[in-house]
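Running this now, will post back.
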Amino acid sequence: MKRTIGLFTFAVLAAAPLLAQGGRGEPAHRAPAPAPRAAPRAPVGGGHIPPRGPVRTAAPARSAPQRPAPTVAHMEGHPVAPHVDVHNNAWIGHDTRRNEVGLRLDHPWAHGRFDGEIGAGHVYRLGGGDRARFGFGGFFWNVAAVDYGYTDGWLWDTDDITLYPDPDHPGYYLAYNVRLGTYVHVEYIGN
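Update: finished.
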């Protein structure tokens, strides 16, 4: 029995250098692989949530012409829609639409004010519907008609949104799509 244990121990010790090489002639200890470089962050969306909503836009001079909603991307890689730049949290398109006629409500908050949580710490999963009427958690909303075209890529039953107050358009909130990084004006229509 002692002889068998001795032969086994000898065989293991003799094979140790071969096992250390991984059986393929490769060194047992390799330098660690370089850490993968992080992919460049997309300039819009991708899960980014702005820490706060836009600030109130200064009133333009009376002679200043109203600028229309965007029809082309202001920078390469940015959408042709109101959006938030992830690098500086700038609300692109907000300041150009202060006096847009389609964003004036005759009766702001006609259905009451939303009493749920708003801001960066509160993300809601859309629960179905479309731009004319959508909801989450028993609360219902509609998108301002002038913003309908900006919702073409929204997934009404799975996208996450964050709500912010709109400081320039009484009665509207801004619904920010976390996946796309775009936002639209929405009106609370009740629960």
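The radius of gyration is 29 Å. More later if anyone needs it.
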